[in-house]
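Sequence, structure tokens quoted for completeness.
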Amino acid sequence: MSEEFHKIRRLPPYVFEEVNRLKAAARARGADIVDLGMGNPDLPTPSFVVDKLCEAARDPRAHRYSASKGIAGLRRAQAGYYERRFGVKLDPNRQVVATLGSKEGFANMAQAITAPGDVILCPNPTYPIHAFGFLMAGGTIRSIPAEPGDELLAAVDRAVRHSIPKPLAIVLNYPSNPTAYVAGLDFYAEVVALAKKHEIIVLSDLAYAEIFFDDAPPPSILQVPGAIDVAVEFTSMSKTFSMPGWRIGFAVGNERLIAALARVKSYLDYGAFTPIQVAATAALNGGDNAIGEVRSIYRKRRDVLVESFGRAGFPVPAPSSTMFAWAPIPEPYRRLGSLEFSKLLVEKADVAVAPGIGFGEYGDEFVRIALVENEHRIRQAARNIKRFLAPAQEARQNVVTFSRSA
């Protein structure tokens, strides 16, 4: 009984846990850690959503088992959101399932469709569940580029020609966690055409559809004509309405895939607490102003992060979407890799970030910085990092000065 179980052996060490342990130890010593690591929104859930939860929770009838695929009103509300936002019409009874967050939705879809040895095409770097949900289900991951474009499409084409067995599915995530890449409808159209040609399932994670900072909102793959023949899309209320602990998300799209997911879920859960689903329905039906407020706050935090970290000697590319910045490790520390650099930031600068290696091997020269602290705290983090980076920057400047004088 000393060997690890088969599925546990398939999972690598959880690298974020190393940073979390250091963070907890530092706080135990009294350090004031500015935590920009986990994407755990600090904004409160809109008051009208909380009020609806309290109202529904007082009804004893709501205390019984709920509906695994989501109560009818919630599924109708999600279908209504898709029609308003994307112009996509969905049948709430056959093309919409409520999930316990998009993460659970992905994991359960993997259980529903994956046979041992099935090949899944997955971006690298990407959100961990995109790969590990399928690994735990017995699948095999083949990495493709994370950035939408010709290289990704060419990688899919190569995989179809050279993978045995042929790939079952391709995972997409735009706006992307962690990279903040955004895809356009032209790219989605090419993916759908490839998927139809080669009979591949497309699983699109659109959890950050409403956290964007440019004028054009990110599209849904289901806006492409015929996409619903091959695609399912996952969304979440965690960031859109600052409801991460409520665990409400959705899978929508292809009827056959939605039915498979619903069947697996019926064996695994009874759905979220009914009052939570009632409150989520109210959010979808009347929360457009709240979405705009959340977006505005993240935009201001992004601007403060980019400006203050840049002045501190840690240039951060401005993300056009999501609540994350994907930042190259400063040159003097890049050789350390993202995990060791992240540990150094906790120990020497009292700042926590997420190591890029946790999102895939091709993320190891980056860290992910979450916009989950207010503007004052972000500036405090920048000051701490400036002090930490100063010796290396001074040494580098001295080398440049010496070489010029020589």
The chain has a mean pLDDT of 93. Residues 6-44+290-405 form a domain with the Aspartate Aminotransferase, domain 1 fold (CATH 3.90.1150.10). Residues 375-405 form the longest helix (31 residues).
